[in-house]
């Protein structure tokens, strides 16, 4: 029953919370951490590395605010245990710009006013970067389907779709050029 | 989350030695693969293992097509399988079912084995604030029987549990006669996917036939399922990133204006992925015209039991079968 913990379990709990040495590669830098095994990748980023760009919305994989790239692919950081992300290349919103130069999708979000409160924005941008690199940004309809893992409570969807279209056009003109 | 020891074994035999039980909801030792369902359930205290054994890097993630058919390593992700060219071309039903599942992020993380073993979306199972759930706490009762049961099963239910098995992939695979390869301390065995999940009966906390320590290592699909005209029709409350209210997986072979053979399975309505041999038998030899399809699909209602809010599924699933067969038959 919730709350009732037997002495044996409590003892196991003491052993269980012994920290694990975890080495994470975040935005090109190796970071060594000592973490409770229960720590999600999202909590490791936010609470231990103070990279608070990735947001915690639902914590259950439903909203997409925590989206980061793992080995180039978009994932939900709230559904990954940090200790199991060891050895993977993780990119967060903090690693997207080149110095002072914004990523084209970051610039497009500003240009298109693709947010209101901003809480979902870093997740939208990380998912949008993947949506473009996966070649799933061919039409507004395709973008809507392939961005369905990211919710926006303010309802800025029209502008988000427009921003992704803009950045996809920049990306394809670069490839063609 | 309940505190746990996290084991990161070097290889599969080391992983097996922990005796994790993937097939029941009250196990003290559990496996974790992609983690997309497990971490949710840990966060919500629905599953409270004392030890969690990671399968990362110890399971095959290959996708192979040969004369025997299709073999999907248990660690292959939903995204990898959904977009694999040979899967798209020869087993499009599998690709469609996967692309209609979850979100792009989850599809990059979730694995084949884990997808089959994901737990029901029954809100009473997933919320420990409800005391009654026989699946989560054996003997505690079922809050869904007299509760909000619009999403619940009409096939394979018992008075102890009416929870739906939520996987789309499993519905497509069961229609294609897939099997799972299983490895345990006692060796390897193969089980038809239709036998992997248990009916709830009076033990809904026992989800599958997996024995302690056993792990799914691969999914196999026989070659004779390749090249059929197929369609995965998913009816849901929103257009994307949503579980099925009703889903129909259909694969047919045509003989002129008639159907030679048909495979039909349903999702969203069964306590496990649900194959419909009676509908298939009625479709075999039937003319490809609406009245004949409706007559065959009506047999899907055999053995159904609605619980109030979900009564509409019994009619809806028949219509979904007809629509899916029509779309599949119209394909080139």
From TrEMBL, chain A:
Record keywords: 2Fe-2S, Iron, Iron-sulfur, Metal-binding, Oxidoreductase
Keyword Transit peptide: no
Listed GO MF terms: 2 iron, 2 sulfur cluster binding; metal ion binding; oxidoreductase activity, acting on the aldehyde or oxo group of donors
Domain 2Fe-2S ferredoxin-type: 20-96
InterPro entries, alphabetized: 2Fe-2S-bd, 2Fe-2S-bd_dom_sf, 2Fe-2S_ferredoxin-like_sf, 2Fe-2S_ferredoxin-type, 2Fe2S_fd_BS, Aldehyde_Oxdr_Iron-Sulfur, Beta-grasp_dom_sf
Highest taxon above the source species: Bacteria
Gene3D superfamilies in UniProt: 3.10.20.30, [2Fe-2S]-binding domain
Coiled-coil parts of chain: none
Keyword Metal-binding attributed: yes
Protein name: Xanthine dehydrogenase, iron-sulfur binding subunit
From TrEMBL, chain B:
Domain FAD-binding PCMH-type, chain residue ranges per copy: 1-226
InterPro entries noted in UniProt: CO_DH_flav_C, CO_DH_flav_C_dom_sf, Diverse_Substr_Oxidored, FAD-bd_PCMH, FAD-bd_PCMH-like_sf, FAD-bd_PCMH_sub1, FAD-bd_PCMH_sub2, Mopterin_DH_FAD-bd
Residues forming coiled coils: none
Keyword Flavoprotein: yes
GO MF: FAD binding; oxidoreductase activity
PROSITE patterns: FAD_PCMH
Protein name as annotated: Putative oxidoreductase with FAD-binding domain
Organism name: Mesorhizobium prunaredense
Gene: yagS
């Amino acid at each position: 029953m919730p709350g009732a913990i037997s002495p044996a379990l409590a003892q196991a709990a003491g052993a269980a919370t012994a920290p694990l040495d975890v080495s994470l590669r975040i935005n090109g830098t190796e970071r060594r951490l000592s973490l409770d095994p229960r720590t999600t990748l999202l909590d490791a980023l936010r609470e231990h590395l103070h990279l608070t760009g990735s947001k915690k919305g639902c914590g259950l994989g439903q909203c997409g605010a925590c989206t980061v790239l793992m080995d180039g692919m978009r994932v939900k950081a709230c559904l990954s245990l940090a200790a199991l992300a060891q050895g993977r290349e993780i990119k967060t919103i903090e690693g997207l710009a080149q110095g002072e130069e914004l990523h084209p999708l970051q610039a497009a979000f500003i240009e298109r006013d693709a947010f209101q409160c901003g809480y979902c924005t870093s997740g939208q941008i990380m998912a949008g970067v993947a949506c473009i690199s996966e070649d799933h940004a061919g039409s507004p309809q395709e973008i809507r389907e392939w961005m369905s893992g990211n919710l926006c409570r303010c309802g800025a969807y029209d502008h988000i779709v427009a921003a992704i279209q803009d950045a996809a056009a920049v990306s394809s003109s670069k490839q063609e050029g | 989350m309940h505190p746990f020891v996290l084991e990161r074994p070097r290889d599969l035999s080391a992983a097996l030695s922990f005796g994790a039980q993937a097939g029941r909801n009250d196990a003290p030792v559990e496996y974790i693969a992609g983690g997309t369902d497990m971490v949710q359930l840990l966060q919500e205290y629905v599953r409270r293992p004392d030890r969690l054994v990671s399968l990362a890097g110890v399971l095959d993630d290959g996708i192979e097509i040969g004369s025997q058919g299709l073999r999907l390593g248990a660690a292959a992700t939903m995204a990898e399988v959904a977009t694999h060219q040979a899967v798209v071309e020869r087993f499009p039903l599998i690709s469609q079912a996967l692309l209609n599942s979850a979100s792009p992020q989850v599809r990059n993380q979730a694995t084949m084995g884990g997808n089959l073993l994901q737990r029901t979306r029954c809100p009473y199972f997933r919320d420990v604030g409800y005391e009654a759930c026989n699946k989560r706490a054996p003997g505690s009762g079922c809050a869904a029987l007299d509760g909000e049961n619009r999403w619940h099963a009409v096939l394979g239910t018992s008075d102890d549990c009416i929870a739906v098995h939520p996987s789309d992939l499993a519905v497509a695979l069961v229609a294609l006669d897939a099997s799972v390869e299983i490895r345990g301390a006692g060796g390897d065995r193969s089980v038809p996917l239709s036998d992997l999940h248990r009916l709830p009966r009076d033990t809904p906390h026992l989800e599958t036939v997996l024995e302690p320590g056993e792990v799914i290592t691969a999914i196999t699909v026989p070659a004779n399922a390749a090249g059929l005209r197929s369609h995965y029709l998913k009816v849901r409350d929103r257009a994307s990133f949503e579980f099925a209210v009703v889903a129909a997986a259909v694969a047919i072979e045509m003989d002129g204006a008639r159907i030679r053979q048909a495979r039909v399975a349903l999702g969203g309505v069964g306590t496990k992925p649900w194959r419909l041999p009676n509908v298939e038998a009625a479709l075999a030899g039937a003319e490809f015209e609406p009245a004949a399809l409706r007559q065959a699909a009506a047999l899907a209602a055999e053995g159904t039991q609605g619980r109030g809010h979900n009564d509409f599924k019994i009619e809806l699933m028949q219509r979904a079968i007809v629509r899916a067969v029509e779309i599949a038959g119209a394909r080139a």
